[in-house]
Amino acid sequence: MLAGSLIDYDSIQKSKNHLLVVSVNRLEDALKKLESVNKRLGPAENQENPLAGIILTGKNELPESAVSYFEEHKIPVIMSMMDTYESVIKISQIEVKINTKTPWKVKKAVSLFQEHVDLRPVFDTEELA
User: Fold this and answer.
1) How far apart are CA 40 and CA 60, in angstroms?
2) What is the CATH number of the domain that holds 58?
3) Per the structure, how many domains does the chain have?
4) What is the spatial distance between Cα 85 and Cα 89, in angstroms, rounded to a whole number?
5) 86 inside domain
6) Domain presence at residue 53
7) Distant-in-sequence, close-in-space partners of 27: CB < 8 Å, separation ≥ 6
8) Reported pTM
9) Which residues neighbour 28 within 8 Å (Cβ) at sequence distance 6 or greater?
10) Residue 126: CB partners within 8 Å, gap ≥ 6?
11) Which of 12, 39, 62, 82 fits as disulfide partner to 86, beta carbons 3.0 to 4.6 Å?
12) pLDDT at 20 (0 to 100)
């Protein structure tokens, strides 16, 4: 996990698949830091996105520029009404049984998700406003 205020070149360069947890209030600053780090990492076509996803916290409105960034970089985003600290605590308490070393579990999870989760409200950006 990576807090929005702690984005730096060294932490992102050392590993992949970061989960960024950041308040909507600090999102634009976090995205600027990510862009700066990405420039240091080299051309976009030669690099993987270091983020596996973003959890946005708080109750404020999502900036349109952020939605464009998520779409351009194909980053999954979840919004939480909890504050950032509360969200990090909840996430760290999750016991994960699916990971990159269990591809059969990943396939099954994707299949169950596709079968049972209606994604239309997730992609309806008008509901975020």
Assistant:
1) 31
2) 3.40.1390.20
3) 1
4) 6
5) yes
6) yes
7) 4, 56, 62, 63, 66
8) 0.60
9) 63, 65, 66
10) none
11) 82
12) 82
